[in-house]
Amino acid sequence: MSDSILERIQQALRLVRVHLPYLCGLANRVHFVIDKRVASIGIFASGRMVVNGEWFAQLHPGDAVFVVAHELLHLALQTHQRCAATEVILFNYAHDYIINDMLRHSLDREIPAGGLNLPGARHLAAEQLVAQMQRDIGVLPKQCWHSAEQMGVPKNEMEGIMIAAGLLATRPDLPGDVLASELERRWFPDAPVTNDSLQQISSLATQAIGLLDLFNHLECCSGQEDEPGGRSETIAALRAKYRPPWEMAVQRWLEDAVPDVRTYARPSRRGADRQDVILVGKKREGWTLHIVLDTSGSMQRRLLHALGVIASFAEGINIERIHIVQCDAELTRDEWIAPQQLYHYSIKGLGGSDMTPAMLQLARNPEVKAVLVLTDGAINYPKSPLPYDVLWVVTDWRYERRDFHPSYGKVILMK
Questions:
Q1: Burial class of residue 351 in the structure, from the number of CB atoms within 10 Å of its CB (0-12 exposed, 13-18 middle, 19+ buried)
Q2: Dist. CA 396–CA 337, nearest whole Å
Q3: Cβ(306)–Cβ(273) under 8 Å?
Q4: Rg of the chain over all Cα atoms, to the nearest angstrom
Q5: Can you name the residues that pair with 393 across neighbouring β-strands?
Q6: Which of 32, 5, 73, 38 is nearest to 147 (CA)?
Q7: Strand-pair partners of 37
Q8: Residues 91, 126: contact at Cβ < 8 Å?
Q9: How many Cα atoms are found within 13 Å in the side-chain-facing hemisphere of 128?
Q10: 3-state secondary structure 154-168
Q11: Strand-pair category, 370-375 with 389-394
């Protein structure tokens, strides 16, 4: 039985290489384990794919290609790494929707085995879908795929998987297919994962997502009318791997600005690979990020991109609210929003360029400790230091050579 299942898996891999050549590297590197402890199929960050043999045997050959490609795309899109700072199961589901829509588009095949289905999801970012599921928590899906039991395998032949995986957030009835490294160590103690193997998977994931972006670009150039599948997630994954220096600088500033205390209740992720030492971690309470927006006319082109970058960082470091003060020559808007709302934020103003009213207003609030100012650099601003830390994010690189040299705060150029 195992030999025939492995042959079916290898055949599915061969067809993945034919139909989705950007996944060839990952397809060559992953290895399979036939294991009844999974209800259907799942993938570890190491590239170990665990398959319920009875479940897989009932798949149509074309459906087998679909589900194997689905698991490889979790590696390519870095689902394990990107979900670390959010609700793991919701991010897992978000990528399931996106990946299934990508594959339906590229393989021209309907989603098999009760897989999650959201037409058009390939055009969305995972964070958008997570926010939507958080709003609609009562109607969450029950699983990524129909389980072996649902596919006709007797219940007594299954052991149930995810409750022990440490991945299920607050709902143990929501199994996912993105499996935790802790579970892998428990299930396969005699086959430990090495840092070299993890690095190989990471490099192949980078290669896969880069090739996918290239294929998408070629498809666009060839005159295809439909937007290439998965472009939003491709861009997000590429940014995660090839983050520009200005984005890394913004992230470091945000992390330093977050008020925190040290606690052993949350071990540091820097020591995640150690079993003998537990490093003290940070306990970060929900806090507010204050942003001053220069909404002069020259800002419109790059402002939304910068806000999206800030939103992606904010969700990972427990920013509960964002206080935005928009300003051109006067205050145009003063409001409090959730980080997810930055992805679709509307701009008002697009007139002059004087940040002084907004920055002085924030200075009157003793609770404001740090302010991020998004500007093109062609602005007026208070010349004397203010009672809070300032990060100037300058969206127009040309002002590096012009007269924008504030005497306080840190300047980061969007290049």
A1: middle
A2: 26
A3: no
A4: 24
A5: 374, 412
A6: 38
A7: none
A8: yes
A9: 17
A10: CHHHCCCCHHHCCCC
A11: parallel
260, containing H or E segment: strand 260-263
Amino acid at 307: L
Rounded to an integer, what is the distance from CA 352 to the centroid of its chain?
36
| C-alpha separations of 93 from 116, 141, 175, 176, 345 in Å | 8, 8, 10, 7, 25
- How many whole angstroms separate alpha carbon 295 and alpha carbon 301? 11
Q: What pLDDT, in 10s, does the model give residues 106-165? A: 898 999 988 899 999 888 888 888 888 887 765 567 677 877 656 544 443 333 333 333
pLDDT in tens, 374-387: 988 888 899 999 99
CB 107 within 8 A of CB 65: yes
The one-letter amino acid code at 206 reads T
**Other beta carbons within 10 Å of 296:** 22
Query: Do 42 and 50 touch, CB atoms closer than 8 A?
Result: yes
Residue 370 and residue 133: Cα distance in Å, rounded? Answer: 31
CB within 8 A of 318, min separation 6: which ones? 258, 284, 285, 286, 287
* Residue-level length of the chain: 415
Alpha-carbon distance 46 to 59, whole Å? 25
